[in-house]
Amino acid sequence: MKGPYPLSKVDSYVTRTSPGAYILSRDGKVAHYVGRSNTDLAQRIKSSAQEGLGYKYFWFEYTTSPMRAYYLECEWWHKYAPVDNTNHPAVPPGTYWRCPVPGCPWS
Question: Which domain holds residue 51?
């Protein structure tokens, strides 16, 4: 995982159009939101940051596929318990992926 970086610098650090997972933070220390993109990580980070919750920092990791992005998002969601994510990460429509975290009801 790379970061934390200031949200104002997304285009400086997320330079590839790629699937991936990310974390948003208000203070650069705590994960407040975990998300993913199946296609364009930079665009998704910027879109999520504009929701007006005061995010100032992000971490990210590229993945090789949308499925890997979903798995990484699940792992981070369980590990960091972000307060702004009230629900488990959603599976993309038309897929039957299961959460990779043992003991999760979605696994």
Answer: 2-80
* pLDDT tens digits for range 27-69: 999 999 999 999 999 999 999 998 878 999 999 999 999 999 9
Q: Kindly state whether residue 95 falls inside one of the protein's structural domains.
A: no
Q: CATH code at 10?
A: 3.40.1440.10
SS3 17: coil
What is the per-residue pLDDT for 27? 97
pLDDT of residue 54: 94
d(CA 20, CA 83): 21
38/19 Cα distance (integer angstroms)? 5
Instruction: Give the 3-state secondary structure of residue 20.
Output: strand
In sign, the C-alpha dihedral spanning 27, 47, 42, 78 is: positive
